[in-house]
Design a protein that fits this description.
The complex is a heterodimer of chains A (546) and B (187). With 546 residues, chain A is mostly helical. Chain A has 17 helices and no strands. Classes of the chains: A mainly alpha (546), B alpha+beta (187).
Chain lengths: 546, 187
Amino acid sequence: MASESTHAVLQPNVGTAEHGHHPAQMPTGIMRWVLTTNHKEIGSLYLLFSLLMLFVGGSMALVIRAELFQPGLQYVQPEFFNQMTTMHGLIMVFGAIMPAFVGLANWMIPMQIGAPDMALPRLNNFSFWLLPVAFGILLSTLLMEGGGPNFGWTFYAPLSTTYAPPSTSFFIMSIHLAGISSILGAINIIATILNLRTPGMRLMDMSLFVWTWLITAFLLIAVMPVLAGVVTMMLLDINFGTSFFDAAGGGDPVLFQHLFWFFGHPEVYIMILPAFGIVSLIVPTFARKRLFGYASMVYATASIALLSFVVWAHHMFTVGLPLTAELFFMYSTMLIAVPTGVKVFNWIATLFRGSISFEVPMLFALGFIVMFTIGGLSGVMLAIVPADFQYHDTYFVVAHFHYVLVPGALFAILAGAYYWMPKWTGHYADETLGRWHFWLSVIGVNLTFFPMHFSGLAGMPRRIPDYALQFADFNMISSIGGFLFGFSQLIFVWVLVKAIRGGEKAPAKAWEGAEGLEWTVPCPAPIHTFETPPKFVPEVDSPSRH
Amino acid sequence: MSKSQSSDVGVKRTVRKTLWALMGMVLFTIALVPLYDVFCEVTGLNGKTATSAQVMSAQGRDETRWVRVQLVTRSGTGLPWRLEALDQVIAVHPGEIAQARFRFTNTSDVRSSGRAVPSVSPSQGARHFRKMECFCFQEQWLEGGESIELPLVFQVDPALPADIQTLTLAYTLYPMSEVVAQGGYRE
């Protein structure tokens, strides 16, 4: 741990001359939040925005689950159902999971590397405020003539060009804005991590959360331009008569899928690598042991990131790839199970002979390890080409990616929120409510998504508002689980409000086994921290020390 | 003292480097489109055939094997036309010149134009399917109710891999008049 003397410099120190980026007078009220350049406030904005989007996207999921509760059309028309599946996916990916990780990065990266703020505070403010604009535009398409996007979150052309509703140009605009936001956020994070580490902290002394975010930021820089390019080509095809994806004009719809998944596969790792980082902090804290295999964790993360660029066509096994390509993408995909297996092994090895206690953050982290692994195993099943021909576009795929995204990414975010809530609010999260939240979420998530494996293997296609009778029982269970899971998340809001308003006060080091510079500043963290770089002695403070 | 002079310089340098990387990825994305076309042309991976008449291959006929050429048509992209393959299956020796007939019928009473876009599967066979004469090289105009018969003259290259015994040539009809008028056809 950094020495106790660092506490002396933690006086709130608003608007001093050295802070070129602060206005001389701190604005108050709403303008304080609109104009803020403080990493903690922007972090909170990101987190609250993503929480809001979680409920918006979640409500859409509940519309889907209500309609699928029994066969036949009950509540919504197929056109609206398609808009719900599309918007649910887009909002959860770009509006809930990604901004939540950026929010955690904003809050925790400067505090974990001993920096006073992000490297580019004004840019940070801009990246955040692009998001409400982007999602305002996206949600407004639901009210437009012809409805919102209805072609699935993967927006395959020509469904999203030739046959798309007129609102598609607004959808493209919102994707552009969200993409710019991500790129700017990534530049900021890279600049912060590479330049603002406290003296003495080498790269291999950084917390795993910082490491995974550094690698994620590079992935964002690499693939967001591809997403921007592909939606721009759609825009040109729709409005300017080009034929990138239009076979009639000499284009190729399969090109769309190649471009989309060249972005899309690294994108799914963008949504999981920071989760690995969070879990790699929480497991050692509550096992009261240092993380097993720090260096191998870093290398495994980097390997996963590199491999993510050579596996994209496993999403496209059924488009008619030549055998050589199918074999290549099958084996390269399976190869990813190796570094991922290293990670799971390291977490379990960290638990081995640890003095484990089961506070709420640890419960979510353990839930992550178990259920993310289930999602990983179904991923290996999907990687098998001959099997994928059967599973492709069925509920088995839906089960797979929800297992890695909900009890995977989302549980890790919730684990992080419970873990750092004392640092944010000064109070521990209510332990009893947190346990209710966890157990109801676990039951809900498994009731929702586990039966989807079976309905998928039995042949139920995804993205349909009505289905054959033999899938009725599985769907009813999924719907009950979906509502249970959805409403359980309200407990989290309750916990959060309670912690902000009061509760058990937390000391600077809120958890007995916690390590890292963020635990050397008081709870709640004052608005400005580490104005003077804290002392960091690798032999004592580094998570990789021997 | 929030940020030292040296870290400010470092931040600027890092930002400059990431912007260069970003620019590189933008250029890479733009380059992917022509690269994909070249890649497909070389390998025939997307089943596309040449868009203009090809000379016949003079490697002679390979009498030792037969290739079944299936001709299928699809319409239904909003053009009120019917496209029929009058010869649905033709067995040819590789190297042999063959002809297939297609009938285009405009079922509406309005003059309109369309284009039949071919696609060969398995796609590995695409570059070995040579067309000497094809209606697919240009768009067709049909008066309301008009019906015409058009030929396809083709040759299967003797270099066709031996494991391919059947080639399927699928024509899809796309409307052209609306494409020109609206810059993209929609309903």
